[in-house]
Amino acid sequence: MVVDGVPSHVLQVNALALEYFHCKKEAVLDHRIQDFMDTDNARHFEQSFEVCLSRKRTVMIQSLPTIPGRLKVYGFWVTPVLDDNNEVIYLEIMGQLDGRDQSILQRERDDAISLLASIFEVSEVGIIVSDDSGNIVRVNDSFIRTYGWARDEIIGKEFTTLVSEDEKERTRVNHKKFISVGVRSTGESKILRKDGGVANVLFTSATLKLSQNRKFLVTTMMDITLRKQMEQSLRFAKDQADTANHAKSTFLANMSHELRTPLNAIIGFSELMKNETFGAIGNDKYKEYLGDIHMSAEHLLDIINEVLDMSKIEAGRIELLEDDFDVHDMIVSVSRMLSSRVFSSNIEIVRDISDEVLVVHADYRLIRQVIINLMSNAIKFSPQGSQIRVSTKFLKDGDLQIAIKDEGQGISEEKISTALEPFGQVNDTPEKRISGQQGTGLGLPLAKAMVELHGGIFELESELGVGTVVRFTIPASRVKS
User: Do 127 and 274 reside in the same domain of the chain?
Assistant: First the structure.
């Protein structure tokens, strides 16, 4: 019962209280206690309420024999419920049933046992109850259905008879610890099936303490065999994929000499013939074909070089050949080399760099290749009459940042991650293939990998119809001046 102070109005009341006071709910709820108690008992309760309100502590009322009712109550506890300011909100009155009323106690025990038994049997997870000696005393139907054992085969047996051989001793030690300390534990284990198979289970164990200090361990088990098999299959598939990828990278890296040597011969001889070094070619058509052969061979060599470089990086076979060099001088050199590509398109390369020497300690070939790849990409996708801006600046942490910005067609945000993956194509359309704007898809991934080999950071920002800016850093520890 809940009341709101003195004078006391009843705010809540349960069925047992109504039975004790032998009243209907409407005669009690929202009424003062004088309305359903005699004057002496009401005064006795209100005096106890006043003490509880003043002390703000629980007080006990001895029940009076003059209170009518069917239930026998030993007494009442009056407990103040306080707010955040330590002020009493209401009083809670709880009756203590007379322990001699065995019929009520027995009924409550029977109801509790019936409820627990129902939960035990209808549960869809397997449940085992074992005593403090580790012997099984009870199992539910779900355990029998899942693992195939008959009750008479396992009741009375030691719990470890159901555990795989490699886990018996650990399970025995844990069982003793769990039941003595009373801790709740969760983990994975292997349970033997009746048919000889082994099931992976996720278990939860909790100690149940009964009268006379009797202790039992209640263990629930969820079969996760299928999940473990799937995890194992995924690991196996990943290992196979990693092995195949490593073999591919190793093969391509080892093919460097075999692929490049004949191509270099084709390029060299076709160039000699195209330039008529040892005499004139009789037919101009042959000279035109030689030009095509020379250009195609150089294009093929570029592709092979990119694939081989990426394969070496993936295989971990690239070693940095570090030396000191001037980054600004390198940018000027690359810009001049690529100027012939942009002359006919009226594309301007703008260098936003100082004339001062800026020395870094890194692999000259790889950093140069990064700048070539990024500027070549910018040229490939820039419209006529646009600008490509190359700039350098120092960040707050001392890192050197190099940026290449174009005014090209750009990349949509959702395709940026694809552009940075090996062989990723963000312009895989017939129009791009015909116009020659589609490459191997290795330019950006190679640049990113080469930057990261130096401990730098590679970033790409792009917007469709606006352009792209690529930034990469050379760590401060590599900057000399």
Answer: no
Residue 223 backbone phi and psi in degrees, to 5: -70, 120
- 70: domain CATH number? 3.30.450.20
- Residue 346 CA to residue 334 CA, distance in Å, equals 18
Q: How many CA atoms lie within 13 A of 155 on its CB side?
A: 8
d(CA 220, CA 468): 58
Write the pLDDT tens digit of every residue in 254-294.
Answer: 666 677 778 888 888 888 888 888 888 878 888 888 888 88
Whole-number Å distance between alpha carbons of 84 and 86: 5
- Spatial distance between the Cα atoms of 279 and 369, rounded to a whole number of angstroms: 37
**Residue 402 confidence (pLDDT):** 96
- Token pair recorded at residue 410: 């750009």
Cα 188 versus chain centre, distance = 21
Which of 223, 251, 272 lies at the terminal end of a domain, its last residue?
Answer: 223
Please state the φ and ψ torsions of residue 431, each to the nearest 5 degrees. -60, -40
What is the spatial distance between Cα 39 and Cα 31, in angstroms, rounded to a whole number? 15
What is the rounded distance in angstroms from the CA atom of residue 457 to the CA atom of residue 472? 5
pLDDT in tens, 400-450: 999 999 998 888 888 888 888 766 566 544 444 434 445 556 778 889 999
Distance CA 277, CA 279 (A): 6
215 within 8 A of 208, measured Cβ to Cβ: yes
Q: Are 125 and 201 in a shared domain?
A: yes
pLDDT per residue as tens digits for the range 73-110: 777 888 888 877 888 888 888 877 665 555 555 555 55
What's this model's pTM, rounded to 2 decimal places? 0.45
Domain region containing 66: 2-97
Query: Considering only CA atoms, which of 452, 427, 451, 430 is closest in space to residue 439?
Result: 427
Phi-psi region of 436 (alpha: psi -120 to 50; beta: other; left: phi over 0): left
Amino acid at 263: L
Within the chain, what is the greatest distance between any pair of CA atoms?
136
Domain boundary among 252, 279, 314: 314
The span from the CA of 404 to the CA of 391, in Å, is: 7
User: How far is the C-alpha of 71 from the C-alpha of 34, rounded, in Å?
Assistant: 20
Domain count, the chain: 4
pLDDT at position 316 over 80: no
Residues 6 or more apart in contact with residue 166 via CB below 8 angstroms:
190
Same domain, 393 and 371: yes
